[in-house]
Amino acid sequence: NHTMLINRQGTKIPISDSAAPIKDERGTIFGCIVVIRDASRERQLAQAKDEFISIAAHQLRTPLGSIRWNIEMILRQPNISDKINNKIKRIYQSNQRLITLVNDLLNVSIIEQGMIKETPYPTDVLEVIRSAVLEMETEAQKHKVIITIQSQEKHIPKIMIDPKRLREVIQNLLSNAIKYNVPGGNVTFVVDHIPEFIKISVSDQGIGIPKKDQLRLFSKFYRADNAMRRDTTGSGLGLFVVKSYVERWGGNISFESSENKGTTFHIELPINIKYPNHEEDTTAFPPFVFA
Question: How confident is the model over 191-214, as pLDDT tens digits?
């Protein structure tokens, strides 16, 4: 995706390329055909798209934040009838979904433009998980979901990582596990220390992921059919963000799932994370992030 040719004048030309083997009558490969194509226009359009999404999302944040604050002020007023109060709460929930979508778009834009800035320091993974669980306790109660954390705490070392970014990863996985679970179902975190890695597993007892959707699960904007039937409000960006961060940290993400039997996501994070080009990151995440 980032291949360049440099001509004799030093100009960099973005290209896309592909290769196919040439075989003789016995099937033995004796050469290949390589096709190289100028991809300058495609890269320019992709960059323009990313910049447009970033600008549009930033412009949307201010009015959405203003709407949220004003709705919260109205909801605090006394003597509002139950009928009006319920309508205002529905408006508030719709506004919150828009805020979540805008934040997802900003995260994806920053990731794709390579503009991630992190502030890593020794972080207790279990504390991050507990904090995320506590924050989503109300949502879990709403869906009648029980969350448990299993770990031998004394054997889990701290790792050098940005806790805010790790929290985003945990929140995305936990949100899905709650949203697509069955009423009365369980969500279980298992945290283990394996050689050179910390392994985090998140299991639910929900609708599962159909086999035909599993290969595209981490693609941008992609959602499984049964997930869309269950909840029409998702953006299909959460797992893309999760995978991008985990792989940036040198980790691995995988999952096991059976339709109507639940899903387990596994994340392996290196004990010693090496940040790619950390010294070159100059643009931070936007300083104000909606809760």
Answer: 999 888 999 999 999 889 888 888
Residue pointed to by tokens 């003789």:
24
| Burial per residue of 148-187, b for 16 or more beta-carbon CB atoms within 10 angstroms, e otherwise | eeebeeeebeebebbbebbbbbbbbbbbbbbbbbeeebbb
pLDDT digits (tens, 9 = 90+) for 131-146: 999 989 988 998 899 9
Residue 66, classed as helix, strand or coil, is helix
CA 4 to the chain's CA centroid: 29
Q: How far is CA 201 from CA 88, 131, 176, 186, in A?
A: 38, 16, 13, 13
Largest CA distance in the chain: 87
The C-alpha atoms of residue 183 and residue 171 are separated, in whole angstroms, by: 20
pTM value is 0.69
